[in-house]
Write a structure and sequence with these properties.
It is built from 8 helices and 15 strands. By secondary structure, the chain is of the alpha/beta class. A hairpin with a 4-residue loop joins strand 7 (about 135-140) and strand 8 (about 145-150).
């Protein structure tokens, strides 16, 4: 169902740092894409703590109408506070679409808001299209092997957008949206934030690598990482990386993780070894110059994001490739 285009498209964001714009491109890009088919105005909600200056700055840079919600004492994500504050504000705004990032807090908040707002909820959206006057939201299903196009039948729809998929495009410099600041008192009764602990800094060569060879669950055992290292050694300015499961097992440090909860990389060449192709991983490498995947599963989702797909056992292909390189 496409709502009557008088209700806004809302971008939900948070800002607790003075050094970074916390309105992700995927939210701006997705909202603009929705606006191609649904002519509602785009507005931004930013939640922040005691200091509102950075949130105001981030909001003003969008050129859109922005509401900054200041919650004194709030220092970071608290599910109880976010649900209470955003549901109250959104109820009064009567939005048609609500866009959140597909991050840890966005994934928790989206279904809770959908329940409170009597809305549909579609998560991990990777594309937005129109068919027969209906907006369709694409997401991966069945272990990321199938793309489903989903249509909301409610008057309101809560969406989470995969990082790295949508781009904001060129900013409209003619836009001069209004900035409204609201202060809301909210204290959690059941959830207490214990703070955020930054990960231990690790040296990683991923940022400057021209070639990245990444290992996934398909390498099967830690000893097989040697094959990945040998393959990387065939290239100049190469580095090795891993999917989340490889880093969770401790086979590689988290500084080597590529994906939503890891790094976003853009090497000239990305070689995926035994990686299934989950959307969370692909979003961290889909802007690579050239992508090659090696996987013995011909139906692996990674082949949807590659320039060349090689269906073969890593233990057979990599040694054969290395022998050819050595002969050259």
């Amino acid at each position: 169902m496409n709502p009557d285009p008088v209700h806004p498209i809302i971008i939900v964001a948070e800002q607790f740092s003075d050094s970074k714009n916390f309105i992700p491109d995927e939210l701006l890009g997705a909202a603009k894409k929705i606006q191609r088919f649904y002519r509602g105005p785009v507005k931004v909600l930013i939640i922040t703590g005691d200091s509102k200056a950075a949130a105001v700055k981030s909001g003003r840079e969008t050129g859109l109408d922005v509401i900054v919600i200041r919650v004194p004492g709030l220092t970071g994500y608290n599910g109880e506070i976010y649900k209470a504050v955003f549901s109250e504000i959104l109820q009064a705004m009567h939005p048609a679409y609500i866009c959140l990032p597909h991050t840890s807090w966005g994934m928790e908040l989206a279904p809770a808001l959908a329940i409170r707002l009597n809305a549909d909820c579609i998560t991990a959206v990777v594309n937005i299209t129109e068919q027969e006057n209906r907006l369709l939201f694409s997401r991966f299903i069945c272990n990321d092997k199938i793309i489903a196009k989903m249509n909301s039948v409610a008057d309101r729809t809560v969406l989470t957008l995969q990082p790295g998929v949508f781009t904001a495009g060129k900013k409209d410099d003619t836009g001069h949206g209004s900035i409204e600041i609201q202060t809301m008192a909210a204290a959690p009764r059941h959830i207490k934030s214990m703070g955020i602990t930054a990960p231990v800094a690790q040296d990683t060569a991923l940022a400057g690598a021209r070639v990245i060879v990444a290992a996934g669950n398909g390498i099967e055992n830690q000893e097989s990482l040697a094959l990945v290292r040998h393959l990387a050694a065939c290239f100049q300015k190469a580095a090795i990386a891993g999917s989340r499961i490889i880093c969770d097992r401790g086979w590689l440090g988290y500084g080597c993780q590529v994906g939503v909860t890891g790094m976003t990389v853009t090497p000239d060449l990305y070689i995926a070894c035994g990686i299934s192709g989950a959307a969370q991983h692909v979003s961290g490498m889909n802007k690579s110059g050239y992508v090659i995947a090696i996987n013995k599963d011909p139906n692996a989702a990674i082949f949807n994001a590659t320039d060349i797909g090689i269906v073969e056992d890593l233990a057979l292909f990599i040694p054969a490739f290395i022998r050819i390189c050595q002969q050259e």
